[in-house]
Amino acid sequence: MTTIPFRWDQVGSLLRPTALKEAREQFKQGNISKEDLTKVEDQEIIKIIEKQKEVGLLAVTDGEFRRRWWHLDFIAGLNGITVYDFETTAFGLTTEAQGTFVSDKLSFNSAHPFLSHFKFTKEHAGEAIAKQTIPGPNMIYLDSFILSKQYHEKPAYEKKADFIQDLITTYQEAIEAFYAAGCRYLQLDDTSWGGLFDARFRGMIEQNGYDPDELIQEFGDITEAILANKPADLAVTFHFCKGNFQSHWLYDGSYDLIAERLLAITAFDGFFLEFDDERSGSFEPLKNIKDQRVVLGLVTTKTPELESKELLKNRIKEASQYVPLDQLCLSPQCGFSSTHEGNKVSEADQWAKLKLVVEVAKEVWPND
Questions:
Q1: For residues 149 and 208, is the Cβ–Cβ distance under 8 A?
Q2: How does DSSP assign 151-175, residue by residue?
Q3: CA–CA distances in Å: residue 78 to residues 220, 274, 361
Q4: Closest CA to 136 of 323, 262, 28
Q5: Per residue in 219-248, pLDDT tens?
Q6: What domains, with CATH codes, occur in the chain?
């Protein structure tokens, strides 16, 4: 099988088509049933899978079409999690949002809806590889435990160590369940690592009694533990970006602080890393890579302008000063619709950018 991650790949989420947005609004208003909404989701996912294959992608997703959020829908489906509504200005705009906190002992739900969602994607993927994306474990550790006001007001655990063990077990069981469902390409999206180098978030972490530098090691340990028993023929990748909400970001800072620990996680087959603008910093932290692949997120999903092939090839060449060219791949820096609202790009922009990724990668790595 061709190596995962692929030379030309994608992160996962895609812009929600109008028919799906309208159906979701109709369901929200109580005008159609959950079954009616699912039918629309099914139809649109079948279409989007075919479109991904048309542009030449080897790994296809369901576009995250059944989700409201890229992360929260999965977390909400676990046992011991409570969801709440709030208003946020974190991304530079005021908007309604949702959060989660650990409200009881954490465990995996064997009837988690994402399992049937994946089976549907796999059924319709045909000769393509069905890729499943889920949020990484440290999303729960940081947002639903460390920084959660609700959790600290009424802790569900006497000892942090007990929570961490349950978190690890939950993810080990999730990985086993997806594998049993036929998944052979799983991606952990874990933006929580950004909170460990962003000055504002490091301050918030310290205010809650934690040392962000110690958490770098701990985040790595947790991640390694959940992957300790993964099947040999299951490819698992890691995706990181600095937040992506309607083309706005959340974290500032470079990979310097986290790269040594993060890139030492050899159980990952590859790392999808954001390098689409000057905020990403240099490629130098990539010198910490072992033998995993690095998928360079050079094509932005935040703005509609199409990057030039020359620019992308020059950036790949620059990165190859730190990572052998044979270990490099190309993708957009993030998904196109981390939430159901989507980024400030059109569907035409989206497909043009994905097509560009395929074309440039084929020119840079002609033998793949």
A1: no
A2: HHHS-S-S-HHHHHHHHHHHHHHHH
A3: 22, 28, 38
A4: 262
A5: 999 999 999 999 999 999 999 987 544 444
A6: 18-364 (3.20.20.210)
